[in-house]
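Weekly modeling sync, notes
Attendees: S.R. (lead), two postdocs, one rotation student

Agenda item 3: backlog of single-chain predictions. S.R. asked that every request posted to the team notebook include the full sequence so nobody has to chase files. The rotation student volunteered to paste the first one in as an example of the format we agreed on. Action items at the bottom.

Example entry:
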Amino acid sequence: MEDEAAPQSSATQQVRRRRVFYIPGYDPIHPRRYRELYRKEGAAQAAVSGYEVSLIGRQGPGSYGWQVTGRMDGTETEAEFDVLVWSDIVRDSMQLNIVQTYLLMMRTAWTYIASGTLWRLMQLRKGPVIAALYPVGMLILQLVLALLLGHVLGGVISFAVGRLALSGESTGFAVRQMVAALSYWAVFLTTLVVVLRWFRKVDNKLYVYYLMHDYAYSARSKGANSAALEARMALFVDQIAEALRSDVDEVLVVGHSSGAHIGVSVLADLLREGQVAPSGPTLGFLTLGQVVPMVSFLPDAHRLRRDLHYLSGQAGITWVDITAPGDGCAFALCDPVSVTGVAPVTGKRWPLVVSAAFKKTLSPERWKTLRWRFFRLHFQYLCAFDQPGDYDYFRITAGPMTLGQRYQNRRPSNSRIEVPMSKYTSTAP
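Predicted structure, as returned to the notebook:
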């Protein structure tokens, strides 16, 4: 990639109306959380940066969304947000019992280890790989603790039952042994079940089961999309295509975390189908905290690799990839096209890889508060910065400049990683 990304358009007209399509990551929660996050953090950023952002909920049928009015740099901009929901697919994928989750853990670990993908990801960025190993380690630890506690309590109860049995003169040795053994196993198995269920009950604080299902979702099919996800992505294409036929100035697609690689395929389909007219709204693609290599490095991720290759050379879109080394859950500053090994020999335009530089854009006090809150930092891209730099989520989504205009003179981060690392580079289905 050249040091300076080619802008999609040199037009300087201000954005008066914008459609924003937000693609969440692997998240089972209702999308209203994103509306409330935008309301809260938009107000906080406006107070820091000296502009206005107001939000109202959208009524009526259709996809979930809200409307935003931004008053920045002397211009008023209206933005209509839609959340491209796939949380129901996520919830369905998480409907596994404890035993099934442990079997899924073993299958997922085997997929990443046996394919050589885990080792290559580790060479790329250790942070997200450690994050991926966290649920594996914690599930094993939970099982070990449950087994130990069950063994100790079972031994205690077995001993007590055996002592009581001794008081009966007519009780034979074999009978006493059998009663003690049955007592042990009854207490052992009961304790095992109770402890493991308790760990799952408090998973909203530990995120063990959640993260395990997250990493397992793509590993189940070795990187291929499920039929349900493909069908949903086709609907996303239709929604965005409809917006591109409207009279807005910009259509902006935002993909966060796992939503980034979904956005890659959705926009690749959109462009292949010729649904981006040169005379229509400007099309922008903003990826935040992406984890693309976790999927694109898998053996059967042919579709995603093909879409990365295609999208990276398209002139009809502006693609900006924002990550930060402080986010241990993302492949920070890794060009998802290049590291996957599918960059075009010539004509690569995207993505423009830019650092959100948390250590600079967050004050020392704020960074100290957040630095060990890894899950919260993974959502910082959608939040306010108290020392904002050239990345401002609210200026991008509610301000008067298109994504292409805002970053047309921005050089990619010098510390970006572009070395091909994936063992699998085939794009053939």
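Discussion: group reviewed the output briefly. Confidence is low (pLDDT under 50) at residues 1-11.
Action items: rotation student to repeat for the remaining queue; S.R. to check formatting next week.
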